[in-house]
Amino acid sequence: MTRAHSWVLSWLALAGLTLWLSGCATAPPRSTETSTAPVSLSNLCREQKVDLNVDAVTQVVTLSKNNLSAKVLVGSDVVLIGNEKIMLSAPIRRVKGAVYVPSDFRRKVIDRFGPQDTFAVKKFRQIVIDPGHGGKDPGAHGRSGLKEKEVVLDIAKRLKKDLEASGIKVIMTRDSDEFISLKERTEIATRSDADLFVSVHANSSRSRSAEGFEVFYLRELNSREKKDDDLRDNQRLKFRNFSMERGSPVLDSIVTDMMYGYKQAESRHLAEHVMLRTPHSLDAEPRGSKSCAFFVLRNTLIPAILVEVGFVSNNKEEKKLKTSVYREKIADSLAKHILSYADQD
Predict the structure, then answer these.
(1) How far apart are CA 211 and CA 140, in angstroms?
(2) Residue 115 confidence (pLDDT)
(3) DSSP string computed for 262-293
(4) In what order do the strands lie in the sheet with 39-40?
(5) Phi-psi category of 146—alpha, beta or left, where left has phi over 0 and alpha has psi -120 to 50?
(6) Distance in angstroms (rounded) separating the CA atoms of residues 270 and 252
(7) Per-residue confidence (pLDDT) for residue 225, from 0 to 100
(8) Confidence at residue 2, expressed as pLDDT on a 0 to 100 scale
(9) Burial environment of residue 32 by CB neighbours within 10 A (0 to 12, 13 to 18, 19 or more)
């Protein structure tokens, strides 16, 4: 790692960002620790009564308690617990014989040796749910008069309830029949401390036979799209909370590129995960996960997906979407598979 990379990682830790220069598609979750300063590993082990051994020759650090063992090499940011690989926010260090670990080591490793938190989620701790359309914008219409804005708001509220029951904090871009502009929706996500943005929609097509469930994620943007005024405005909003030099084009560019790279990769992986499982749960036609540049995906700064739950223009799907039973089924399935993805390392 170059000195420049090391400096950027240190700065990102101070800024509260959880991004990687190594190219790993999965960023670690936002830490609940109040400090990003290195922590004494011996103190952490003493608190949890974990045995600590540091091999002076190999520099392998071993933690053990009962039948659980974790190993990490001094200078590395990868911890092995059995066959599981855990990425830390920074490498562990040894200074004058003492081992120091990044602040997320407690949550990711040490806590494994103690009582397990029923609601521990490793990637997403706060999610913005965006029910599409609303107010003067009804969205798509079904032949019987079913309005997209009503369907997706109901599903979003049910999804919110499911996620909150699993310990996730949820922010709604709207929780009633009101019009919220696309720009306002992305600003809500930017001002929040959320880890994920989920936009819920219902589809429509001139072909009455079109049906099924699909998930969209952000495609590769061109240079002009990356300079979009709305995106730049959101970047400035987000950067206000960072400990960084103000107005530095170099810093802005580095952080923007890292956030974009992480967002695009995480969004695609989540979209594929949800797409692979949800249609089967709903007995719906799988239409695949697809890349696009929808406004709310393009101008948010966090991982984001847009879910099309079905076609109101299809008679069969419109009838299902009118029922509370099917809407509940959609919400339950989405929550289940978002959480199963979040629980992955």
Answers:
(1) 14
(2) 62
(3) HHHHHHHHHHHHHHHHHHHHHT--EEEEEEE-
(4) 39-40, 98-101, 93-95
(5) beta
(6) 27
(7) 78
(8) 41
(9) exposed
Secondary structure (3-state) at 305 = strand
Instruction: Tell me the C-alpha distance between 263 and 293, whole Å.
Output: 13
Q: Rounded CA gap, 308 and 157, in Å?
A: 16
- CA dist 325 to 88, 116, 142, 282, Å? 42, 33, 18, 11
Q: What 3-state class would DSSP assign to 163?
A: helix
- Please tell me the predicted confidence (pLDDT) of residue 38: 87
For residue 302, what are the CA distances in angstroms to 36, 48, 69, 183, 231?
21, 34, 34, 15, 12
What is the rounded CA–CA span in Å between residue 88 and residue 288? 33
Tell me whether strands 196-203 and 126-131 are parallel, antiparallel or unpaired. Answer: parallel
Q: Quote the pLDDT of residue 25.
A: 33
Tell me whether strands 39-40 and 51-54 are parallel, antiparallel or unpaired: unpaired
* Model pLDDT, residue 233: 82
Global pTM value: 0.64
Length of the chain: 345
Looking at residue 107, what is its pLDDT? 86
HEC string of 213-265 equals EEEEEECCCCHHHHCCHHHHHHHHHHHCCCCCCCCCHHHHHHHHHHHHHHHHH
> Which residues are paired to 217 by β-bridges?
291
> Which pair of tokens denotes residue 281?
């749960």
Distances (CA, A) of 133 to 158, 176, 237, 297: 17, 11, 24, 15
3-state secondary structure of 3: helix
Contact at 8 Å (CB) between 103 and 33?
A: yes
Concatenate the DSSP letters of all residues of 35-101 into one string.
--S-EEHHHHHHHHT-EEEE-TTT-EEEEEETTEEEEEETT--EEEETTEEEE-SS--EEETTEEEE
Q: What integer pLDDT is reported at residue 6 of this predicted model? A: 41
83 contact partners, CB below 8 Å, separation of at least 6: none
Give the span between the Cα atoms of 77 and 89, in whole angstroms: 7
All residue ranges of the chain with pLDDT < 70 are 1-36, 83, 115-122, 237-256, 345
Burial of 169 (0-12, 13-18, 19+ CB in 10 A): middle
